[in-house]
Amino acid sequence: MGGVPTTVERRGELGYTWSVDFDEAADRLYGMVPEEFTSARDALAKEAKAAGDAALAKRIKALRKPTVVAWAVNRTARARGRELGRLLDLGRRLRDAWRSQDADALADAGRERTPLIARLVRSVREEAEAAGHPLGSTADLEIEQTLDAAVVDEDAAEQVRLGRLTRPLSYSGFTPAPVVRPAPGPAARERPVPKAERDKAERERHKAERERRIRELENALAEAEQAAREAERGRADWEAERAEAVREHERRAARVETLTAKLAKAKDKLNAAEHRLEVARREETNAGRAARSARGRAEEARAALDEARASGG
């Protein structure tokens, strides 16, 4: 299993052992303040790549920096898990009640929902301020929409629970929170609704729908702009990676060229040495023959001299 580096001392130098998996790495990164995220992520990805775990390095590098609001919700999920757990439990009860069409359970959950979300919005603000990143005035809506999405959508609830949001969430589907109204009495059924009231209700309905649509478009714009920024960061990251790869390729190519030239010279010297060895062996053989021939003639001359001396006496 791949992991992120844990600093250790090895042979007097700073080294790394790999013992943390991807989930632990992601938890560590998304628990950091936003300004530390990118450098920490890039360092972990670089170390994973240097350790030979290219797949882990790629997964870590793909992690996106959270917006400040998303970071604040992530921090709250870690620091106030019990408080957030009550909201997520409420979401489970609400969804179960909706599936079973339990009107009483829906009504009970609906009464808890608003004040619980309001308290958590304050908690998110408090956590952000405690960490030195107070949130702006427009953050409450994004926090509320994120928490509301966690109540009505199971996938959103899991994202919030994990504390790895990169941007605020929103839910545009049908919300299981019907308004329970008492049945009208006979008098109410008989009284016609004045046209002015009908017109006012229609205007209010249109206004609410328009405001809801504006919020959806604002969220979509924010998400699109965030995605564009992340895509640009990703492009810049890979541009830097490509530039580094080009520089490394050029260094390696120059080194290969140098070694190739040295190898050619070494081969020339080897060929010269082999030629010298061949000549030396050949001349050694010739010299051996000449030496043996000379020793034979010397022995013949000595024998002739000895014979001449002996005959003279």
Describe the 3D structure:
The protein has a two-stranded antiparallel ribbon with strand order 1-2. Helix 4 (68-79) crosses helix 6, helix 5 runs antiparallel to helix 6 (103-130) and helix 7 crosses helix 8 (154-162). The longest helix is centred in the C-terminal third of the chain and has 118 residues, at 195-312. The protein is rod-shaped. Strand 1 and strand 2 form a beta hairpin. The chain is built from 10 helices and 2 strands. With 313 residues, the chain is mainly alpha-helical. Helices cover 77% and strands 5% of the residues. The chain has helices at residues 22-30, 34-50, 54-61, 68-79, 81-100, 103-130, 139-152, 154-162, 186-190, 195-312; strands at residues 4-10, 13-20.
List the helices and strands and how they pair.
Layout: E1 4-10, E2 13-20, H1 22-30, H2 34-50, H3 54-61, H4 68-79, H5 81-100, H6 103-130, H7 139-152, H8 154-162, H9 186-190, H10 195-312
Helix pairs in contact: 2-3, 4-6, 5-6, 5-7, 6-7, 7-8
